[in-house]
Amino acid sequence: MQTKVNKGKYFTPLTIGVAAVWFSSHCGAGFASGTQEVAYFVRHGWLAPFWPLVAMTLVGLVMYVTLEIGRLHAVYTYSEIIQKSYVPIHRVLGTLYDVIQTISMVLAPAACLAGGAALFNQLFGWPTFVGTLVMLLLTVLVCIFGAKAVRLFGTALTIGMIIIVAIITFAGMAKYWDNIVYHISNRVVYTNYKDMVWYGILYGLFQSSIWAAGAASAVGMRYRNEAKGAVIVGIILNTFMLSAVVMMLMGAMPTVATDPDARLLPTLFVVQTLTVPGLAIIYQALLFMALITTAVGFVFAVQGRLGLLFLKNMKNVKLKNAIISTGWLIVIWMVSLFGLLAIIQKGYAAMGFINLVILVIPMFTLGIMNIKKYRRLEEQGELPPEIQSDQG
């Protein structure tokens, strides 16, 4: 017998919190430094400010499928969601994805540790090891307190990052407005349209791994519209902020793509050309917040997965989370030694190709097919397992 399912509200503190975790995980070392924007959008030509909508919509669609399947089964770790999404070949494809996702969960926070160490060295002259240790400790402190703490932390810092990005991009676009208009009105192309389109899609493909951070923070999501609301807010927020930074950096073309120093930290290059008092300090605050929020989002997602495999009988949850997060961050630290540019340009691009095969295509086929099946079970009162009494 079918029952009427309560679809709930689109926009709640939980949905906004999940969208904030998505943005804070996206706004990491590559985003805040401008390195990602130049590599995947700006250096190709005039479509750069518009193409982020395509990339973030791709990420949002993957996020929606995974959030909805997680909601229907009341599971929030990426391994559990993958197993439910990839039925009937979940044992083979799920195991493969588990391995690949683990690798992707190393790359983003590794870039953050590398960026954080460089930032503290620049600001205070600290050795790389000390800067890395500070980043590690801060990440563990947030992760040990659970999903609610991660959502609150992500939301608070997201508000700060939005304000700071708005200040920087407004000042940058005002200074370079004529060059921005020149590029768009004359449809300037530096590479070719094929690369322009492909690299924008590739950005969305490797960013799709962020779904795991969003899903891990979605504990308590119970209504259909909540998943939709989180994705709507996430797409709008991420597209707007990414496009704004891309447009600002376009104003500094071609220097930010050709000059070795400018290419390393393009946003810093633009900030240094502006005559706004205190803007350099504001940018450093943005970079720090971006680094720590991304590290927290990804480490927290892995923490939930590893918690199913290790220390299963430990009753002290905070101690368990601390041990797992610290151990995983040591692995991340070793990868961070390769450096920020190598991780972003080589590691991220490789993950984009891999995600297409083992994440995006399966989610848009098997995942959607299974959502329809699970929703029928929901209407029959069999799913979600923990909240049947709340539906009606």
In terms of DSSP E residues, the strand content is under 5%
**Assigned CATH architecture:** Up-down Bundle
Radius of gyration: 21 Å
Continuous helix count: 17
Task: Supply the number of structural domains.
Answer: 1
- Average pLDDT confidence is 86
**Low-pLDDT residue spans:** 387-392
Q: How would you characterize the overall build of this protein?
A:
There is one protein chain. This protein has 392 residues and is an all-alpha fold. It contains 17 helices and no strands. The radius of gyration is 21 Å and the shape is globular.
Provide the fold topology.
Elements: H1 13-26, H2 29-33, H3 35-40, H4 52-73, H5 78-85, H6 90-124, H7 128-143, H8 147-185, H9 193-207, H10 211-216, H11 224-250, H12 255-258, H13 260-264, H14 266-273, H15 279-307, H16 317-336, H17 340-379
Helix pairs in contact: 1-8, 1-11, 1-15, 4-5, 4-9, 4-11, 4-17, 5-6, 6-7, 6-15, 6-16, 6-17, 7-15, 7-16, 8-11, 8-15, 9-17, 15-16
